Amino acid sequence: MLSLGCKAAIKAVIFLATRTDDMQRPGMAEVADHIGENVHTVGKLLQKLVRSGIIHSSKGPNGGFYLSDNQLNRPIIDIVQVIDGEDVFNQCGLGLSECSNTKPCPLHNTYKGIRDDFERLCREFTIRDACQPVKDGNAFLMHA
Question: What pTM was estimated for this model as a whole?
Answer without folding.
Answer: 0.92
